Amino acid sequence: MAAGNVVAAALFLFLATSALLVAGDDPYRFFTWTVTYGDITPLGVKQQGILINGQFPGPTIEAVTNDNLIINVFNKLNDPFLISWNGIQQRRNSFEDGVAGTTCPIPPGGNFTYILQVKDQIGTYFYFPSLAFHKAAGGFGAIRVLSRPMIPVPFPPPAADYPLLIGDWYKANHTDLKYMLDSGKALGFPDGLLINGRSWDGYTFNVQQGRTYRFRISNVGLSTSLNIRFQGHTMTLVEVEGSHTMQTTYSSLDVHLGQSYSVLLTADQPAYDYAVVVSTRFTSKIISTTAVLRYSGSGGKSPAALPGGPTIQIDWSLNQARSIRWNLTASGPRPNPQGSYHYGMVTTTRTIRLASSSATVNGKQRYAVNGVSHVNPDTPLKVADYYKIAGVFSVGTISDSPSGGGGGGAYLQTAVMGASYRDYVEIVFENPENEVQSWHIDGYAFWVVGMDGGKWSSASRQGYNLRDAVSRYTVQMKYNKQTNTSLSLVLCSDHHDLTHKLCLFHQVYPNSWTAIYMPLDNVGMWNVRSENWARQYLGQQFYLRVWTSSTSWRDEYPIPKNALLCGRAAGRRTRPL
């Protein structure tokens, strides 16, 4: 037997015989990744990139609902390293989430095997390096989770399924960018945009006339909302972050930080090379880049002009947001229709209001949630919680509502909010600032039930969409700083029609809010963060501790047997092998 097969077989036996935290009847997929530094030149300037198996971006993970993913990561960097899995819910197993509050870093020269299961999930996701400012150097890649063969999908199989990772990029090395933030300086405007790690016409998608293709679009950038369009073609939206949507056609699509979309594109034009155009949104200057959509037998570049896109138009973006609706009759990861769960008929048990803010602390720029700017302790919160190590964190160090209206200063604190397992919460994200905000919650998907300008109040619930809001894991709030005018999206009901409609109107508001409903059905320690990576790095995040007194594995798995232990947990034992 070949050496590689011996290693794989031994690992499989270890996993299978150690009462692993995954379903024994579901398939296993094994990956071995070596993480190294390497020279990359995405914008024509040599810089230090983070490569996975020599690739930038990293390899695509393809899985099927309920697959077990065994990912052995060897860290050849000179820094501690972790990978997190954007949108993968880590059911009952936040130890594997791969962020500073849940998982001890892989030391330089060390390795760690992630043991994940894409339990009851389908759709489009991505992974990324979560520590320091590594995300600015690469180390990210696409994840696609396909439906099981017996589960109906609401569109025919595409001719090909392409990952399409878009994002802003800086020419400076990630270490220099981190130093800037640590020194209290802003990153400034990005130097360019990338499509699958390449700049202008550096990446090609091959298509054949008459066939339909699926493109899985994710914004993996650091600071900028983006718009994407295909020259001479339209897109049909079919999935958003694990939810099948009503199939609406778009000529271009806004993709905010951390968001993912799946679209179908039919190659129905004459055989030329067409441009895939990506450009910035809501920025003082507009930058763009292109990839190539190449037909088989192409006669060269299309003679048509490149398609223009929206720039600072908030109304355009909100009008598009209002059109994205949950497909109530389509199956999700299970055969029953997505709409069989009536999220709007469940009574909420708690309201959490979260306000972002910018502040100067000790003479340096920081960002905060409800006045608290998070700092990571010396021991991951989840590890400290498991071993009951005192002094690492306290539950309740961040309030569930803003103090003083959400403005003012901030203070440094390890921020942990407590919550009870099986509660059904309403979370309102309040944005008093002059930029688009994008938020992500690890371990969960949620329903975006309402957006509006001004201040949220209990009366705002009258406009909630309680029928067919999309379930997703990233939400954005918008603000038009150029005109001090926010265009507000309101979900309103027509009493003569039981379906909910969306209304778009102009108001002069200095702020806005977005409300979500979320069932707390996943015990663990979960990161709630800004997807603007500088804001996240400088404190705009906290951890939601979803707790139960139960010790049953049906509610939460114990610490993995192979878990790395660090900080105040160093020298302890996990569980007997």
UniProtKB/TrEMBL annotation:
One MF annotation (Gene Ontology) recorded for this entry: oxidoreductase activity
Signal peptide (from-to): 1-24
Top-level taxon in the UniProt lineage: Eukaryota
Keywords: Signal
Entry's family note: Belongs to the multicopper oxidase family.
PANTHER family for this protein: MULTI-COPPER OXIDASE (PTHR11709), OS07G0510900 PROTEIN (PTHR11709:SF90)
Name the UniProt record assigns to this protein: L-ascorbate oxidase
Organism annotation: Oryza glaberrima (African rice)
Lineage: Eukaryota, Viridiplantae, Streptophyta, Embryophyta, Tracheophyta
